[in-house]
Amino acid sequence: MTDKLKTEGDFTYAEAGDGPAIIVLHGLMGALSNFGATFDHFSNNGYKVLIPELPLYTLPLIKTNVKNLASYLKDFLEFKQIDSAILLGNSLGGHIALYFTKHYPEKVNTIVLTGSSGLYEKAMGDSFPKRGNYEYIENKAREVFYDPKVATKELVDDVYATVNDRIKALKTLSIAKSAIRHNMKNDLPEMTQPTCLIWGKQDGVTPPEVAVDFHKLLPNSDLFWIDKCGHAAMMERPEEFNQILFDWLKSRNI
Fold first, then answer.
1. Which of 27, 29, 89, 187 is found 20 to 30 A from 156 (Cα to Cα)?
2. Residue 250 has what pLDDT?
3. pLDDT tens-place string over residues 221-246
4. Within 13 Å of residue 171, how many CA atoms lie on the same side as its CB?
5. Which residue has the higher pLDDT, 158 or 81?
């Protein structure tokens, strides 16, 4: 996906396709490339897909939190002159989507969550040492997926580099603690936008009961399961993920 990135003003992002806007929000340790198959599928099937590079490690430490990441999303939508969007978030990205929806509901017409934080965190940031040995980081990365082979050496190397960079490690902790502070439980019943929940049955980071709770609390939601799948369904089972979401969007005339 790096060949598709462009930088304009304060924003670096990938963009393709025409139609209703889908804004993809990546997770704390997630690269934009995790959504490569989703980006291609929807941009070729009637949607404009945009994936902004979230400023996880470029904001000042005191501003590295869910609130300011949601503000960044607001600025991005205004920059792209998008009045209303479909927000698709994985892990921290889902949490940012929910926080944004709470504060700017008129700018969100649809929510899509997969392995989202916001209700329950197995606080990954707290369990990652500031300087970890490679084998430990490799094992933690593999635990994110049902199939550990999805955690490629390139992915593990990226995570290892992040947690061994003192400033990035501090900002990772800051975001993880911010996610815990900004629990969305009391806000979800007010979110009436059509919401699609797509969850890996073997998600060990935000387990299946979290998806069930989201489904109960979000008044206009549908829940879909993907078997033999962990925390990043769009990455581990991209074809199934894309088909579920595409069919759901069509069923809702979105």
1. 89
2. 97
3. 999 999 999 999 999 999 999 999 99
4. 20
5. 81
| C-alpha to C-alpha distance for 13 and 50, rounded to whole angstroms | 7
Instruction: Give per-residue burial for 110-125: e unless 16+ CB within 10 Å, then b.
Output: bbbbbbbbbbbbeebb
Contacts of residue 251, defined as CB under 8 A and 6 or more positions apart, other chains included, come to none
Token pair for 4: 């598709």
The two three-digit tokens of residue 116, written as one number = 């989202």
Handedness of CA 227, 233, 239, 243 (dihedral sign): positive
- Checking DSSP bridges between strand 48-52 and strand 21-25, what pairing results, if any? parallel
Q: How far is it, in rounded angstroms, from Cα 142 to Cα 58?
A: 27
pTM of the model: 0.93
Which of these ranges, 14-23, 57-66, 216-225, 242-251, has the smallest mean pLDDT? 57-66
Which residues does 109 contact at the CB level (< 8 Å), separation at least 6?
Answer: 20, 84, 85, 86, 193, 194, 254
In this prediction, residue 159 carries a pLDDT of 86
Sheet with 11-16: strands ordered across: 5-8, 11-16, 48-52, 21-25, 85-90, 108-114, 195-200, 221-226
CB atoms within 10 A of CB 103: 12
